[in-house]
């Protein structure tokens, strides 16, 4: 068998690379190492800012030269780390050696022993993961989610008045509007977006078992917890003062549960739009040159929504695994979380592919108001609810002697189609007041949408 040239195993690095590449800036191995360097450098700056061990605060020029080590982090550093990690068999230690090497090149070798000072690998990792995830969510994933929400909002407002035959349990039911149904998804998603936007990203910096033991051994009179808090918060993170060797990951669990929740809502959206396309309510706009079926030239398949479903299911499974695994760490530390966290980008990547497909899919459909109208006109029996409820009100008001309005309408409409003329004849014969009868005779399935349009315009 002929061997292929090197190929990406994951579709995220192959078929979907163009969609997810922005995430790689943060959540790839290189992205993580760049931020590890950032944490190491900023810790050196913090120690010197506090004039510890006889140091003095660095000049602005020296700080800029140090920060350039992570701001210009690139292929040379990636290759250097790969070679060193092959020897150390420890990724964070390789980063420490990189920083020491670059300090020497900058003529700042006197600071070398402040590199990784008092830190365990998880001090660096907890901050690096918090920063990379926070930035990936804020800069890439959340904007993609918001774009879908805004597209839905636009469609909902555009079609706020488009009467739609509801289907509860898959059966014709009280009409609504297309805008109101899409608006429900906007309302649901906005709530979860707000929760995600309010997420905390925590970090720790308290040594091998969370006790600052080594720090105190080196400098017993220094208020290390205060310095650590200031350092962590200077990075834009929240400080976790009480941990084992690792930061407990609870913020990650909360975030991934919310991301999964958003994905579940989006999955519901994808299946509903797919169903509306199947019913003919939405027509798919042909894309020049595209093929729907290898044998049936007429077909335009709703592949955007099907692709979104699949990727949301994969992402949801990974988010669940992340949350279930990261909640536990044996005693003061085990390595399970290390392997697990390397898949954060995979989970967000599949979610991002789904968001891209949903946005494209929503751009490639157009509402068929004729199909909506025809479906409504074929289901006048859905007005049975309006009639029996009005009759009940007339009975209470003393304007009707009907004994069981629900049973009366059930006999007329259950399991059978009722036309406009038949329903009008039925209403004409009802023992109700003239005003109520007039209202019912003026009603059509297309106008029996209650406050649907008003709700959409009010809340979106």
From TrEMBL:
Query: What processes does the entry annotate via GO biological process terms?
Result: IMP biosynthetic process
- For whether the record's keyword set contains Cytoplasm, the answer is no
Q: Which GO terms describe its molecular function?
A: N6-(1,2-dicarboxyethyl)AMP AMP-lyase (fumarate-forming) activity
Record pathway: Purine metabolism; AMP biosynthesis via de novo pathway; AMP from IMP: step 2/2; Purine metabolism; IMP biosynthesis via de novo pathway; 5-amino-1-(5-phospho-D-ribosyl)imidazole-4-carboxamide from 5-amino-1-(5-phospho-D-ribosyl)imidazole-4-carboxylate: step 2/2
What Pfam families would the database entry show? Answer: ASL_C, Lyase_1
Please state every residue range assigned to the domain named Fumarate lyase N-terminal: 87-308
Top-level lineage group: Bacteria
Which EC class heads this enzyme's classification? lyase
Respond yes or no to whether keyword Heme is given for this record. no
Protein name as catalogued: Adenylosuccinate lyase
Keywords carried by this UniProt record: Lyase, Purine biosynthesis
Primary role: Catalyzes two reactions in de novo purine nucleotide biosynthesis. Catalyzes the breakdown of 5-aminoimidazole- (N-succinylocarboxamide) ribotide (SAICAR or 2-[5-amino-1-(5-phospho-beta-D-ribosyl)imidazole-4-carboxamido]succinate) to 5-aminoimidazole-4-carboxamide ribotide (AICAR or 5-amino-1-(5-phospho-beta-D-ribosyl)imidazole-4-carboxamide) and fumarate, and of adenylosuccinate (ADS or N(6)-(1,2-dicarboxyethyl)-AMP) to adenosine monophosphate (AMP) and fumarate.
EC nos: 4.3.2.2
Task: Recall the taxonomic lineage recorded for the source organism.
Answer: Bacteria, Bacillati, Actinomycetota, Actinomycetes, Micrococcales
Record field: transmembrane: none
Every copy of the Adenylosuccinate lyase PurB C-terminal domain together lies at 329-449
Q: Which NCBIfam families match?
A: PRK09285.1
What species was this sequence derived from?
A: Microbacterium betulae
């Amino acid at each position: 068998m002929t061997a292929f040239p090197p190929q990406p195993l994951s579709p995220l690095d192959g078929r979907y690379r163009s969609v997810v590449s922005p995430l790689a800036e943060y959540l790839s191995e290189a992205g993580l190492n760049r931020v590890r360097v950032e944490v190491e450098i900023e810790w050196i700056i913090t120690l010197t800012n506090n004039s510890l061990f006889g140091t003095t605060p660095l000049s602005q020029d020296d700080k800029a030269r140090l920060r350039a080590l992570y701001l210009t982090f690139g292929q040379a550093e990636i290759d250097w780390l790969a070679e060193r990690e092959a020897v150390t068999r420890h990724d964070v230690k390789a980063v420490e050696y990189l920083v020491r090497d670059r300090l020497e090149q900058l003529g700042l070798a006197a600071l070398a022993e402040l590199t990784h000072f008092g830190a365990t690998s998880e001090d660096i990792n907890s901050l690096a993961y918090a920063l990379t995830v926070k930035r990936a969510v804020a800069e890439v994933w959340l904007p993609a989610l918001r774009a879908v929400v805004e597209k839905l909002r636009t469609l909902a407002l555009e079609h706020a008045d488009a009467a739609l035959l509801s289907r509860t349990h898959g059966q014709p039911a009280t009409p609504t509007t297309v805008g109101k149904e899409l608006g429900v998804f906007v309302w649901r998603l906005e709530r979860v977006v707000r929760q995600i936007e309010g997420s905390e990203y925590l970090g720790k910096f308290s040594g091998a078992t969370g006790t600052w033991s080594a720090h105190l051994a080196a400098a017993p009179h220094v208020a290390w917890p205060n310095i650590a808090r200031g350092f962590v918060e200077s990075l834009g993170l929240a400080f976790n003062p009480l941990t084992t060797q690792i930061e407990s990951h609870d913020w990650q669990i909360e975030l991934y549960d919310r991301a999964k929740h958003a994905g579940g809502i989006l999955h519901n959206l994808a299946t509903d739009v797919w169903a509306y396309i199947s019913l003919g309510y939405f027509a798919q706009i042909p894309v020049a040159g595209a093929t729907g079926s290898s044998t049936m030239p007429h077909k335009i398949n709703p592949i955007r929504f099907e692709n979104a479903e699949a990727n949301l299911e994969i992402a949801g499974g990974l988010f669940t695994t992340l949350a279930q695994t990261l909640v536990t760490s044996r005693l003061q530390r085990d390595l399970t979380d290390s392997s697990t966290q390397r898949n954060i980008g995979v989970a967000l990547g599949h979610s991002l592919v789904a968001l891209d497909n949903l946005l494209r899919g929503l751009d490639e459909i157009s509402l068929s108001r004729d199909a909506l109208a025809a479906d409504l006109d074929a289901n006048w029996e859905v007005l049975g609810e309006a009639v029996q409820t009005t009759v009940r009100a007339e009975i209470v008001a003393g304007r009707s002697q009907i004994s069981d309005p629900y049973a009366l309408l059930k006999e007329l409409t259950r399991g059978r189609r009722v036309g406009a003329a038949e329903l009008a004849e039925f209403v004409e014969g009802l023992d109700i007041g003239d005003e109520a009868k007039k209202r019912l005779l003026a009603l059509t399935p297309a106008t029996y949408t209650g406050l649907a349009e008003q709700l959409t315009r009010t809340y979106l």
